[in-house]
Amino acid sequence: MKKEFAFYLGAIVALFLLLLAWLFSTPEAIARLVAPPAGPESAVVKIVLKDGHGSGFVYNGRYIITAAHVVGTESKMKYKGADGVARDAEVLWANKAYDVALLAIDAGLPSAPMTCRQAAIGETVTAKGNPLAVEFVQTEGKIAGSPRAIHGWRSVYVADISAAGGMSGGPVFDADGNVIGITVGGMIAPMGFGGSFVGLTFLVPSSAICGLLSMPEGALA
């Protein structure tokens, strides 16, 4: 009985060692083991423009969602992920009323999940993007007001998140890592929209984005 136990134990150890040898047999295999798992931050991109930049996120593997005012009138543009590699994107549509645009890309970067639910007032959220000359950062705050039409946007949340130029189009995540909206602007004072930033940001709700994605060409407006 002891001999049989020793035999089976030896066989199990041998199989385990063979498995380890296979796992570490190539650099690619080693990279898979030591690389951190892809999180929502891996889906954030920088939209590269001729006279500036914006932000966005990879959706469903082959698309980028960003702000319509980032895209402007362009039909093609460049974007890059945190790996710094420049890639091509094609603008499929841009809805100016909601300030949302959809770009087509080749597969290559991880996607971020997006929820179609409405965020609750007081809910903690995290905005990611590329403010000014700083790339791939995040700020945290809370939803401060329910969706409303304001300053030309058809529907936006008010949030107490710090944001600056370059973060437009960047994803805003809930506590579960789901996109709950995208950044499209910030409140400035005095006179409401001219002067210095006051720390309030406007976000297009993901529920509105879900609606646009379900319509032909984003219900262009």
Order of helices and strands: HHEEEHEEEEEEEEEH
- In round numbers, the mean pLDDT is 82
Biggest β-sheet strands, sense, barrel: 6 strands, antiparallel, barrel
Strand order of the largest sheet: 1-2-3-6-5-4
Task: Walk me through what this model shows.
With 221 residues, the chain is of the alpha+beta class. Helix content is 19%, strand content 40%. It has four helices and twelve strands, in the order H-H-E-E-E-H-E-E-E-E-E-E-E-E-E-H. It has helices at residues 2-23, 27-34, 68-71, 206-213; strands spanning 44-49, 52-59, 63-66, 76-80, 86-95, 100-104, 124-129, 137-150, 153-159, 171-173, 179-189, 196-205. The strands form two sheets. Strands 1-2-3-6-5-4 form a six-stranded antiparallel barrel. The longest helix has 22 residues, at 2-23. The N and C termini lie far apart (79 Å). The model is unreliable at 22-38 (pLDDT under 50).
Keywords:
221 residues; alpha+beta; 6-stranded antiparallel barrel; 6-stranded antiparallel beta barrel; 12 strands; 19% helix
Task: Explain the layout of strands and helices.
Blueprint: H1 2-23, H2 27-34, E1 44-49, E2 52-59, E3 63-66, H3 68-71, E4 76-80, E5 86-95, E6 100-104, E7 124-129, E8 137-150, E9 153-159, E10 171-173, E11 179-189, E12 196-205, H4 206-213
Antiparallel strand pairs: 1-2, 1-4, 2-3, 3-6, 4-5, 5-6, 7-8, 7-10, 8-9, 9-12, 10-11, 11-12
